[in-house]
Structures are given as C-alpha cells and as structure tokens.
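hey can u check if this looks right to u? its 459 residues, i copy pasted from the old doc so theres a chance i mangled smth
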Amino acid sequence: MKMFDDSLHEECGVFGIWHEPGVNVAQEIYYGLMALQHRGQESAGIAVCKTDGPRGNLDIHKDMGLVSEVFGHHELDRLTGNIGVGHVRYSTTGESNLNNAQPLSFYYLKGTLALVHNGNIVNCEELRHYLFDHGSVFRGTTDSEVLACLIAKERSEASSIEEAVKRASAHLKGGYAVIIMSPRKLVAMRDPFGLKPLCLGRKDGAYVLASESCALSSVDAEFVRDIRPGEIVTLSKDGIKSDTSLCGGKCAHCIFEYIYFARLDSKMDGVGIYGARYRGGEALAKAYPVDADIVAGVPDSGLTAAYGYAHYSGIPYANVFHKNSYVGRTFIKPTQEQRVSAVHIKLSVIEEAVRGKRIVLTDDSIVRGTTIKNLINMLRKAGAKEVHVRISSPPFLYPCYYGTDVPDNSQLIADRLSVDEICKQIGADSLGYMKLEDLSRMTGDLGVCTACFSGKYPV
C-alpha cells in the first residue's frame, strides 16, 4: 500500500472551468485544486486553451507534488486560456510518476483534447482489444490513457466531441468522473451508478465543474447541482447542454465519500458530509454504548463522528491528540518500525486530557490495524485507563475496483480476524464497527455502494 498508515485514499480530484474569451482561468483552477488537495497529493496539473485561438493552442503544466509545489506565479502566468481543466492525483492504477500525471493531452486529426479523470475503468483489457480491432495504434497503459485513446478514436468518426464522449461511454464499465477539454468546449461525464462525484457551478458568466462543492466555493462559484449519474454535460458559448439518455439506472454512490474522502464543507448528491458523519457517530453511540469519561476522535477523519457519539451518549467530547500541521506529506515508510515513527511525528497525546480517563475513540476505518494500535499504545502510555474504539464504517472484507485504495484481502485485518480478535490485536478494551444496516442513518435513502463491506459489486 502507498501509505504510511491505515487511512484510505481516493484516486484524484478533477476541476474544470469555461469562461468567455479574454479571461485567463488558470488562477481559478489553481484555487479549485487547492480545495481538492485532500483527494490526491502525488501530482497536480492544469491545461488551458483559448476558445478564440487556433485549434491546438493548448498550454499545460503538471508535475509531481502538492498543488502549491507544482504551481507558482511563473507557471500560472504562462498558462493563458479562457477554458481549462485541472487534476490532483493519488495513484491506484499505474506507477506514481510524472508520466501518469494528469491532465492527459492527446492530438488527433481533428485537433487537440485534454482529459482529467477520477476513478477506475474496470474493463480496460476489453477496451484495448476493441481499440486494436478498430485500428488504433495507441491503446494506453493506465485506465486514464485507455479512456483518452477511446475518446480520440470515437472523435475521429463522430461529428462532435459530445457525440464522441457518448459513444465512448457506451463501452465503459467502472466508476468515473471525467472532464474533457476540446478547443471550444468542456464535456463532462459521470458513470451511470454515480460512484464518483461531480458537480456543476456558475460564476459571472463562467461555468465550473468539480469533484466536490467545496471547490466551487473556493472560486466563489454558486453551486447549481450535481451531475446526474450517467449524464453527459457540455459547456460552450451556447451555454449548458445536457444529455441524460444514459441516466435512470440504479445508483451506487461510493459510501466512503460520506465516511471519509469528501471535505466536511462539501455536499454530495443532496447529502451534507458533516451531517452524514455526525449521524454516523450517533448511530455508533446507539449501537455500542459504554461507560466512559470522554469521547475523542482520531484527527481529522474521526472527529465529526466523535461529536455525534458524544451528543447522543451525553459523554463529554475532548481533544486528546495534537496534530502537527507542519509535517506536510509524510514519507512513505515500508517497514513497521518506520510506520510507528511516522504516526508519532504527526500526532502526539495531550497527557492531561487522558490521564486516568476511560476514553471512547472514534475513527473512520481499520485497514491493517497498524495505526489504531499505535494510537491506543500512545494513549495508554499517557495514562488512559480504558480505550474503547468505535469505527464509523463496517469491517473491510473485500477490495475496491472503482478507484478507492482498498488493498487486497491479504492486507485486510478483518478478512482474517474476528471483531473480538481485532480488538485484542489492537489493544482496545472494546471495539464496535458501524453496522451495515446503520449506514442509511448517514445517507438516508441515497443509493450507495457498500461492496468493500458486503462483496456486492454494482458493476
């Protein structure tokens, strides 16, 4: 796994903006990507073009690192164009290197396209065969490249970019949110299950697309609506055009957007992220009551569930960890000993808050059990009397194929140990996971994908 702890990672975040000619949008894309930085920290990129310029006038810059490391004034000033797309990446397919950073740009007989993609296409091998059978020289290494090749192939035969995207979407299986920039338009598509999020905003004659509504707020854009599962949206000088001919099937939004991935101030498909996590904490308190002195959360992913648990149970909430906000990206450490050191660098225990206390500790998930075990040890060394762990997701039993970095079963602690055995392994006094049937407390009647818990995959 490409992480120092047990936290999960999304594949990436996407952002796009269409503005009238004469306005440069690179700075706004930069702000949008900064708001989506939590979705990917390996690489960042921006591509722009002028709709009143010659076809093929695409400017692009991308590199490894955080958005603030990849872009400075020099890079942003040279990116001139009134439409553009941006991307932050965490790799779940393909190696972590510059070759796989996005946006992807590609040239074909009718012009230039740039593409940003969040998610995983699960039928890539089938698509490579399709491209080969139809004479395509380039068939792609990563799923994003396969997707780009497919759209370019369809564009060579279609009358418009939106028609090409629709023809390409008919071949796709998986979870995806994609924005394609042509010399004159932006075209966005979302998978028919709604596994990956995508929303639309508006600002002073500009239209904005983003993985999360928090990115719209970062550029002072008004939230208009979520892109519907299966919908294809085109932004151009003619305004907004929507194709909903592929909509209407069963939805399966990724549950981990609501448990962990999305930023607290975002709203997705009608559900506020903060409220979902708060209600998750209340559900845990109802399902797993315990006599305790304080409730605390693991920063930052477990804090909101802790507030909900404390409210429902009546047990006071307390901060028990100090998070070092200046660590930045922690080095990827391959050994157990180095992982332990990384946890201590990032978090420290507030001793006077925990000494002699019985603590309820909430977090979003347990993957391997490494991090939660280290945190419990830290609390006990600081004098905690008891540590009762509450997890705001069910146990991970199956891998994810749609762009969430859930590892294979060999690395899932719940695949080989019972809940009681996990409790003993991590050194907790008790352990309670969110019940599968209680997930609806978080998201209401919204259709969600729970395959990593249940094994029931929508695709």
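The chain has two domains: 12-251, 268-454.
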